Structures are given as C-alpha cells and as structure tokens.
Amino acid sequence: MDTIKPIKVGSTKSSTHEKLTSAEMGKLWATYMGNSMSNCILSYFFHHAEDKEIKILLENALKLTEQFMKAIKEIFKKDNFPVPIGFNENDVNLGAPRLFEDEYYVHYLKYTAKAGMSIYNVGIPIVYRKDVKDFFTYCMESVMDLMEQIKEIQMDKGLIIKPPIIPIPEKAEFVQQDFLNGFFGHIRPMHALEIAHFYDNIENNVTSKALIMAFAQVVKDEKIRHLFEKGRDMTTADIEHFMKMLHNENLPSPSFLDDLVTSSTFSPFSDKLMLYHKMDMFSLKIRAFGNSVAVNGRHDIALLYGKSLMKITTFVESAAKIMVEKGWMEQPPQAADRGHLASN
C-alpha cells in the first residue's frame, strides 16, 4: 500500500524553542503522573511474577514507564517546568505478599495499554512542538508493540476469549424504521459496533473489578475502603448488565477475574496511589462509555450506558473530594487567574 505524498513546506514553526502550549503541558503532565503510578505497580508485579514470558512482558512495560518519565523530565527541564511529584518508592512495598496471580498481570497490562493508547491518540493531533510530537508518536508506537506482545501471550496461554463471531452480511442494506427501537415493537439484533463495545467494556471492567476488589481488601483508610466497596459493587452490576446484553443475543462474553486476587490483606501500595488509580480508571470509563454511546443506535442500550455514566461520575467526584481533603491531589497546569491578578 502506497503512503500519502509528503508535503514540503520548509516551516520551522514547530521547533523546540517554542513555548509549550496548554495541550502539550497537560498531556505531558498527565502522561508523567500515569507512568509514575504504573512504574510503582509494575515494579511490584515484576517482583512477584514467576511465569517466564509474563515476567519478560512486565519488564518491557516497566522499561517503557522509565523511558517515558525520563523523556518528559528532559522536556520539562528545557522549559523550566516543575516535574510533578507523582508516585515513587514510598508508594509501593515490594516485600508485601502476593496480591494477584500471574495471569492477572497480563489482563492488567492490556487495560493500561489501552488507557495509554487513548491518551496518546488524543494528544498527537493537538501537539505541535517537534520534540513533544516525536515523544507522543514514540509512546503510541511503543505501546502498540507492547499490545501485540500482550495479545500473543493471551492467545498462547489461553487467557482470552476473542470477540464474538457474527454472520457476514449477504449484501449492503439500509436500516429500517425500527433501528432505534429498544423497548417496544420489533427490536433488531445488536450490530457489530454495539457488540464490540460491550465486549470491550466487559473486558475492561472485569479487570477493573478485580483490582478494586483487591484494593478494598488491603486499603487502610476506612472511608476509602467504603468507596472502593461501592465502586466494586457498581462495577459488578455494570458487568452483569453488559454480559446479559450479549447473552440475550446468544453471544459469549469475557469472564470475571476475581479468582486471580489472593486472600492477602497486607497492602503493597499507599492509600494515595490506590485511590488515585481507581479515580483515574473510573474517569477512563466515562470516555469508554461515551464512545460506546456514540456508535449505538438502540434506545435501551443508550439508557443502560447513561445510567452507568451517572454512577461513575459520582464515584470520581467522591474520590476527588477525598484526594483534596487529604492533600494528595496535585494541581495540573492551569491558565492565569486574571481576576486574582486584577484584585492585587
């Protein structure tokens, strides 16, 4: 397949001497925060992993987090931008007992690789400075390569059920008047995009549910534990509803991963890291469910996602309030407070 023709404009406007834009600051900041957190978690996973292939996979992912953080620090240093505090060795206890089985690490890596690709995919079109653009392009390509390794291991070790198979259409057709029906009259079968997003959301949520279940098991703060238990039950309900939608179409779905969490009650992570992680994961669900609504046609499916979005938003707000109360919420880069400047 031929590539598109190059355009020669001879412009130097995207040089590294230009100031970082708000988009570049925000995406670099978020990427650093996420990778500093992932570095702690993957270090713990790597410490306990026994399966040879899974350990290599974790090592590859761990090296990427280190490379990404190093590159961002270099960009920030050039611009005298303060490096975020993020997370470090104080937020992880490598000597804590095993909290997950090796198999879970593969599912977790797939979840986080999807999250990373989502961030980089949004970032690439809105960054212009050459070093930042090159960085996010490298991030996307590296995580795509990691994703291929993850899928190979999942298939080789029988850790995954592929998305459902549906019939090939006999011909191209236009939809009928009942296309949007979901409650009354004739309800059409789900189309391929609706099925794909249900499958993807189940796959994401069974990983998220096992993680929040483990966190609720080991977290020290009772208020955070209560929130985690609420999030666990909320996620379980969403999974069951999504599974039912596929099963009603006689289609298979990914299964729960709860059995991959051990009975340990000794926390390997700080409460701050666990709360931030779940707040971040639930925030990503908002984007995932929004994408699902965008390709959906049936009213019943739209209502199901709508109810889930409302509950998820409430969880994220509750988590953010606790983060602020405890002084754990780092301030992202923000615009100048013109009103405050004027008053002074």
Indicate how many domains the architecture comprises: 2
Name the CATH superfamily classification of the largest domain. Ferritin, core subunit, four-helix bundle
CATH topology descriptor of the largest domain: Ferritin
Uncertain runs are: none
Radius of gyration: 22 Å
Number of helices: 9
Task: Please summarize the sheet with the most strands.
Answer: none
Structural class: mainly alpha
Protein name: DUF3231 family protein
Pfam families: DUF3231
Organism: Mesobacillus campisalis
InterPro entries: DUF3231, Ferritin-like
Would you mind describing this structure in some detail?
It comes from Mesobacillus campisalis. Pfam families: DUF3231 (PF11553). This is DUF3231 family protein. The structure is a single chain. The protein has 344 residues and is mainly alpha-helical. The chain folds into 2 domains: 22-156, Ferritin, core subunit, four-helix bundle (Ferritin, Up-down Bundle), CATH 1.20.1260.10; 184-325, Ferritin, core subunit, four-helix bundle (Ferritin), CATH 1.20.1260.10. Helices cover 62% and strands 0% of the residues. The chain contains 9 helices and no strands. The protein has helices at 22-48, 52-78, 102-123, 130-156, 192-218, 222-248, 271-294, 299-325, 338-343. Helix 2 packs parallel to helix 3 (102-123), helix 6 (222-248) runs antiparallel to helix 8 (299-325) and helix 7 packs antiparallel against helix 8. It is globular. It starts with 21 loop residues before the first helix and ends with a helix. The model has no long low-confidence stretch (mean pLDDT 92).
